């Protein structure tokens, strides 16, 4: 074509996969220019043949029978919608479950913070434990001393009873029959 024939046209270059080009050729398109032009025209028209609003989705206005170049993308998408909705609902349920778990864990964290705040300081607790151990040791020593004193009291009582009895009088020196002379009298 002479350059004058191309005044109202724009030259574009693009790379497409070989598999896509083979599908285009199998549809009877022999020229890339004709195939691309037809594709752009279909893209810009809705199913009624009127110009398409370029801001709307290309899938919402195409008739499934006018899918360019034998693509099956639109029917696959329409079949996937219920599956995707189910997955979305599952994800929403999981998110709500996670939110519930997070709230429960936050409540437990707050409870543990309160427990920690109410707990005594470790240093003070160690001092109290040490004092308690010291007092327990002192109490055990006093109890042992009380036992010793009780045993001593019993022993003393036994000796007191022994000395009060009549047997003790026998231990006294016997009275001698003869009278002793005083030491200063020799003769």
Question: Topology of this protein?
Answer:
Elements: H1 18-26, H2 32-44, H3 58-61, H4 73-118, H5 122-164, H6 167-170
Structure characterization notes:
The chain has 187 residues and is mainly alpha-helical. It folds into 3 domains: 11-71, no CATH class; 72-119; 121-162. Helix content is 64%, strand content 0%. The protein contains 6 helices and no strands. The protein has helices at 18-26, 32-44, 58-61, 73-118, 122-164, 167-170. The chain is rod-shaped and about 190 Å long. The relative contact order is 0.03.
> Regions with pLDDT < 50 over 5+ consecutive residues?
52-65
Oligomer: single chain
Classify the helix fraction into a percent range: 55-70%
Helical stretch tally: 6
**Biggest sheet architecture:** none
The total number of structural domains is 3
Distance between the termini: 187 Å
Shape: rod-shaped
* Integer-rounded radius of gyration: 58 Å
Strand content bin: under 5%
Indicate the structural class.
mainly alpha
Mean pLDDT: 77
Tell me the series of helices and strands, N- to C-terminal: HHHHHH
């Amino acid at each position: 074509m002479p350059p004058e024939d191309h005044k109202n046209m724009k030259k574009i270059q693009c790379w497409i996969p070989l598999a896509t080009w083979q599908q285009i050729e199998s549809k009877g398109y022999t020229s890339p220019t004709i195939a691309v032009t037809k594709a752009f025209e279909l893209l810009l028209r809705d199913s009624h043949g009127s110009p398409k609003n370029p801001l709307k989705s290309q899938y919402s206005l195409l008739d499934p029978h006018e899918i360019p170049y034998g693509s099956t993308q639109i029917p696959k998408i329409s079949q996937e919608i219920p599956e995707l909705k189910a997955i979305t609902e599952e994800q929403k349920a999981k998110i709500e479950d996670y939110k519930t778990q997070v709230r429960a864990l936050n409540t437990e964290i707050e409870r543990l913070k309160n427990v920690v705040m109410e707990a005594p300081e470790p240093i003070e607790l160690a001092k109290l434990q040490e004092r308690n151990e010291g007092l327990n040791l002192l109490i055990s020593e006093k109890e042992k001393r009380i036992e010793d004193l009780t045993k001593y009291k019993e022993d003393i009582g036994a000796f007191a009873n022994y000395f009060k009895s009549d047997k003790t009088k026998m231990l006294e020196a016997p009275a001698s029959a003869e009278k002793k002379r005083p030491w200063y009298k020799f003769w």
